[in-house]
Design a protein that fits this description.
eight-stranded antiparallel beta barrel; single chain; 2 domains; alpha+beta; 8 strands; 191 residues; Lipocalin
């Protein structure tokens, strides 16, 4: 961030020096560096600016990590074969990904996410805390490595996240969900 801020500040100095004011001191231009850092931080950390920037970058480089923002629906399949419907909301900026998974009996909150590309395929490492609806039940933590895939369904491609989950209760299972909308403000809760 400091390097980018410095480069943009020096570029702004050269631009001002060349086209407007010839005798301006570089100290005055560098005094705007904190404002440039704030602007860059806002651009990188808010979805209002990150999503349009992401779309522009995807046109330049189509293999860029996919935009996962939106609402999703799918199911959790437990190790005993029980299928539990889930609704998911993903909010993603250029620096952060938040995943909220809701079932009829619990909701999961993001502890950590790491988007990555392995062997040319996008993956999403996800650690979460599951909070049960019933306050007498204990919360659990777990992790999943999601495969981020494009699947062909009903004549069009849809994004799908799927992977195995593991919890601190020594339970395992599979979770899979597909993107059903791009709105990040929709209420997905069951309760």
């Amino acid at each position: 961030m400091a390097v980018i801020t410095t480069i943009i500040s020096i570029g702004a100095y050269e631009l001002v020096q060349s086209y407007w004011i010839n005798d301006i001191k570089i100290v005055k231009i560098l005094s705007i560096a904190p404002w440039i850092a704030l602007l860059i931080t806002i651009v990188l950390t808010t979805s209002i600016t990150a999503r349009p920037l992401w779309n522009i970058l995807k046109k330049v480089k189509p293999s860029l990590y996919p935009d996962l923002n939106g609402t999703w629906a799918g199911e959790i399949t437990t190790e005993t074969g029980i299928q539990i419907p889930v609704r998911v909301l993903i909010r993603q900026t250029l620096l952060e990904t938040q995943i909220n998974i809701h079932t009829e009996t619990s909701k999961s909150l993001t502890l950590e996410t790491t988007p990555t590309i392995e062997g040319g395929e996008p993956k999403l490492y996800y650690m979460y805390r599951s909070l049960p609806k019933d306050p007498s039940w204990n919360s659990t933590t777990g992790s999943t490595i999601f495969d981020v895939r494009k699947v062909y369904i009903n004549g069009k491609y849809e994004l799908e996240l799927s992977g195995y989950y593991y919890t601190d209760r020594k339970t395992t299972g599979r979770i899979r969900f597909r993107q059903v909308g791009s709105c990040v403000e929709k209420d997905i809760s069951f309760y």
